[in-house]
Amino acid sequence: MCSIVYDQELQAAPPRHLDAPFFEEVVETALRTARIQLLGIHCSLGSSTGENYCSQIYRVRIKYRWDNNGKKASQQEHQMSVIVKSIPRIESVEFIEDLQVYLKEKITYYEVLPRLELLMQCKRRFGPKLYQCLKLPENTLVFEDLSQLDYVMASREAGLNEEHCRLVMERLAEFHAASMALATLDPQIFEAFGDGMLSPHGLAKDDGLLLRFFSGNAKQLHKVVNSWPGFERIASKIDKYLQQQRAHLVRAQAPLEKEIKVLNHGDLWVNNMLFKYDRVQQPQDVIFIDFQLSIWGSPGIDLNYFFYTSLSLDILKHKRPQLLKVYHNRLKETLLQLDMNVPVPSYEQLLNEVQRRESYGFFAAYGILPTVSQSKAQTADNNLENFKDADFAQRKVEQQFESPRVVETMRYALPHFERAGVFD
């Protein structure tokens, strides 16, 4: 069995649970054959420092030889690249266990996404292929490396332009529509998707990571807005919101009567989507990744979260109605093509779903956008160990709310949230 070579940044603490027999099984699953011989394994970091708080991402390149029914190709060396997502079992991320994110993501990739893609006659890819899982010693999932198919991340700092947003709306509508159709075929399949980012289970502990993080952001928002002339009334309403923050967060996601139900991605922001471009750098396709917080509920959850974490401010201000139209047109078109007798929501129904979930947009704007808007230099020291230090965490949140993008977005969005009744 071959050995594993680690990049320099991993040599101090290499992921020993990822051994050669593990990767042998990965290759066998990917190629659908056991007639392979590993020749070399190279492991490096798969994301920049500070881009992933709760998991470690590795890119692993595997050289192998395989017996192609006695053909000459069996003597040739081949190479495969995979992405490994490993979630360490540490106390500070207890919400990962509370929300069963590993099990949910495994079910999504193994069972749900393949069935959704079959409903779409395999004309759409909603996510990468999952090759292997490991529960102990660390929750680990091994995925197809979509960069080998020329998919890349867009810039998270600036926000997406209209072309990117329209493409995301189309693909999201297809994903949602396919989930509605699958629910008619298998009514129980989404029972395991009752928890999302704002689940009561994840927010139950006062000293839990999620609640502390969102509370720190909301307090800093209040402090900043309180210093803005003309925002005194809104600052007062944010102060009242803070007094019942946990209840407001839970209510923002909780099921409502007579709502449209879809499988929400649950964490739909720029870093959880990969784009493919043509020769002139126009986006041609998008594939979603990271389905660990998916939730069965209103499409208003995904739509509001995406709008307030991932759009450039100009698009948020001026193109939101057009984007909702793009989404609705593709949702309607896909449901009719699937021909599963799923009722097609009207545009007015969709608008109502989005409006009833404006509180989710407010949460995304203060809870997620400030982190998204940081430069790569600012996020270089972002990790869970550092955030345990109260002074470090406070400096970071102050830095986040100094971002021009955050300030300008809040100055635009807060009056909108007030008119929508989010603070009532």
UniProtKB/TrEMBL annotation:
Pfam families: EcKL. InterPro entries: CHK_kinase-like, EcKL, Kinase-like_dom_sf. SMART domains: CHK. Residues 141-337 form the CHK kinase-like domain. This is Uncharacterized protein LOC117564518. It comes from Drosophila albomicans.
